[in-house]
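Expect sequence, tokenised fold; for instance:
***
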Amino acid sequence: MEQAGGRLELRVYTGGPVPIYAQIMEQIKMAVATGALARGAHLPSVRALAAQLGINPNTVGKAYGELEREGLVESGQGRGTFVSSKPPPVAPGSVDRAFETAAAAGLAAGLDPRALRERFDAALERLTGQAGSRPRRK
């Protein structure tokens, strides 16, 4: 996902196992998490994003609706849809479940626990810009 010239650039893949609305949601969540989309940023209208992606507007509407239910975006009649100015509430255990899902996928792909930790640390460094985010062992 890119923010090119003020235009939200998403990529969706049809025919895959992940529904298109879920792909849109995940890319917007990632953009917010990484700062590519700032709090309060205006999102494209449902029709504009649907036209850009070549998909049904109902699909974009579903993604925006789910993101609003999760508290990540806010919308209002005539105002449009915006990234929420406040962080959405984190459901207890949701971060742990996400880590477990990612770890299970890595283990299933044949990575060992050390390789998983290295990848996790690298991801944190990319997201936070802070190298050495993990205390070093002596």
Summary: The radius of gyration is 17 Å.
